[in-house]
Task: structure prediction
Amino acid sequence: MAETAPVKVIATNRRASHDYHIEDTLEAGLVLSGTEVKSLRAGRASLVDCYVAVSGGEAFIYNLQISPYEQGNRYNLPEKRPRKLLLHKTEIAWLAGQVARKGYTIAGLKLYFKGRHVKLELGLARGKKSYDKREDIKERDTKRELDRAIKDSRRR
Result:
């Protein structure tokens, strides 16, 4: 029986589920330098406004912010540089085909360590309209009220 590698979450993009309908997810590796990995071990990353683009048969993530490592000196790289994603050719082709459809994008959802490797959970996302967001808020509020009512009825 193979043991699964422990997962340690570094950063999540909570805004993505608010702004997009997430239709499918995919796991990808990242090409990083040593100081970037050390900064990630300290939990210094942000996925806000990051997106994936496919160019030349390769996938890159843009606007993924990894803060500079304090002891990195001249070995630190720019915080928001494009980083290459490690995916199979078929996965890259599938992503490119999905993004070609109108209204779809690929957003970074979660950055985490899986064993000793840094992984990024990507989400195939379709933008929400403002009325979709209002419906989500209304559903959340009604669910919260139902949970409270059930909790109160159990107390009595």
Q: What stands out?
A: Helices lie at 14-19, 34-41, 89-100, 130-155. Residues 130-155 form the longest helix (26 residues). The CA atoms of residues 133 and 139 lie 10 Å apart. The chain has a mean pLDDT of 88.
